[in-house]
Amino acid sequence: MISAANVSLSYGKRVIFKDVNIKFMPGNCYGLIGANGAGKSTFLKILAGEVEADKGTVTLGPRERIAVLRQDHFAFDEETVFNTVMMGHTRLYRVMAERDAIYSKGDFSEADGVRSAELEAEFAEMNGYEAESEAAVLLNGLGIPEELRNLKMKELEGGDKVRVLLAQALFGNPDVLLLDEPTNNLDLKSIAWLEDFLYRFSNTVIVVSHDRHFLNQVCTHVADIDFGVIKVYTGNYDFWYQASQLNLKQKQDENRKVTDKANELKEFIQRFSSNASKAKQATSRKRLLEKLTIEEMPVSSRKYPYVVFKPERPCGDIILEIDGLSKSIDGEPVLTNFSLTVRKGDKIAFVGGNGLAKTTLFQILAGELEPDSGSFRWGVTITSAYFPKENGAYFANDMNLIEWLGQYSPPTEGEAFARGFLGRMLFSGDEALKKTGVLSGGERVRCMLARMMLTGANAIILDEPTNHLDLESITALNNGLIAFSEVVLFTSHDHEFVSTVANRIVEITPGGIIDRVMRFDEYLEDGEVTRIRDELCHGHRELSL
How far apart are CA 112 and CA 103, in angstroms? Predict the structure, then answer.
């Protein structure tokens, strides 16, 4: 168990938390949610002892151990993968290191013998003899093959580093586990393994994630940061959403009833206060009116951007025809003889383990890359808009946001139009004067979505659009694409996003493509798809988004 008592934190005049009192109990998995800037990661750091609150205390159960998913991907660069995982249990690792140092001595003294016996007892108490096999199981579950385990961390790719650090946090059965965005850079197989691990985990878990499907799968409770406080709901993310919306509606209904009653009393008093026969009733109603209180509705930190794509014209019969596209990057084949016909109403999710293949395909379709061979043709009625995975080139200037959006606005529109549009994307007032160079990742994504909305395109290409967005912005984009009546080509790591938007799945495998007109969850469960994938991949790694 871990608890916080009267925890408060402010940055200048901005209050992050005020007198937070909360207990996180064993056997439960708590999803810590809130808008960007609400303080989710900061609160995890307070619980971990990495950030000190202005006041209040954090209490861990006696003899309990806390483990944290590390965000510094370079902290263990000089350590081997295997040692990095073992270092997740600091006390066990220290005992192992001291024990191994004693055994490596050439002149083993009597004192060394006594100390080694003490260390062996301590080692056994912490299940040290099972540590290596446990570390191997964790690494295997998270997709780190055996040949990488003796390499130094600095030799790994970024995604594999994240997996090793996650294995480090899970190692040694910690009493309290703090996970900040644990599904980042994980493929579907690894996410499913992690979901199962956390489902069976019997201790306390507190997790921050923007993956709604993951939160629904693992959470027994949701801890919602809003209005400067943390409120705990029983159930997963969907239960929280329903309960919070019901709670808000009940408060609004109560206020409406009180307002209606107050208006009724005021009307009676105004009509009969000068009437002698009704004077007593009017006085009685004045007392009732004074007792009525309308509960002040606090301002939520949650803000939903306005994401609506309005095509200037519907698509014609010919949308997009791709014939035999091939492309190599740095001498390595990325796309090989890729062919596809896109039809009216298609919302295609491109999936598969090779993210570079999907990005390369989108760059070719957007005109940013030339294929080595093959061709593609957009229909004459089609106008497309492209959201790239990397957007830095669009912000390599010293403009403010009004000037930046003005580049893509209709020439007849001025500053008022840009301000209005930016306001709907959560850049109101002085926020619209921000320089592009200081924008966060999420702010850049919102700007890029605004740019796309201004095009009036009827074919939208999106490469990982949910990266960097908070849950509210993901929900707004998700709903905007569901409502969009024309063609969408996209890729995303967000399971919920893919399963609710896509009506057609195209998986790019090393041996070819699998193309199915069906929802994503149906696709994952389709045994025929699994058989075809196995034939195409010939033992290659399984599907990842």
Answer: 9
Burial class (CB in 10 A: 0-12, 13-18, 19+), 504: buried
- If we measure between CA atoms, which residue out of 279, 312, 290 comes closest to residue 383? 312
Judgement on whether residues 382 and 260 belong to the same structural domain of the protein: no
Which CATH number is 31's domain given?
3.40.50.300
2: its two tokens: 């871990």
Spell out the per-residue pLDDT of the chain, length 545, in tens. Answer: 999 999 999 888 888 888 999 999 999 999 999 887 788 889 999 999 999 999 999 999 898 999 999 888 888 999 999 999 999 999 998 998 888 888 888 788 888 888 989 998 988 988 888 888 999 999 999 989 999 989 999 999 888 898 999 999 999 999 999 999 998 878 778 888 999 999 999 999 999 999 999 999 999 999 999 877 899 999 999 999 888 878 777 777 777 777 777 787 778 777 776 676 666 777 777 777 777 665 655 566 788 899 999 999 999 999 999 999 999 998 899 999 999 999 999 999 999 878 899 999 999 999 999 999 999 999 999 999 999 999 989 998 889 999 999 999 988 888 899 999 999 999 988 889 999 988 888 899 999 999 999 999 999 999 999 988 889 999 999 999 999 999 999 999 889 999 999 999 999 988 889 999 999 999 999 888 888 877 776 644 444 45
Q: Is the dihedral of CA 524, 528, 530, 536 positive or negative?
A: negative
Of 235, 250, 279, the last residue of a domain is 235
H or E segment at 322? strand 320-329
Do 204 and 250 fall into the same domain? no
Do 221 and 256 belong to one domain? no
Domain shared by 200 and 337, yes or no: no
Does this model's pTM top 0.85? My answer is no
Structure tokens at 332: 């390595």
Question: Of the candidates 112, 503, 184, 475, which has an alpha carbon nearest to the alpha carbon of residue 343?
Answer: 503
Same domain, 373 and 518: yes
- Write out the residue range of the structural domain in which residue 229 sits: 1-64+175-235
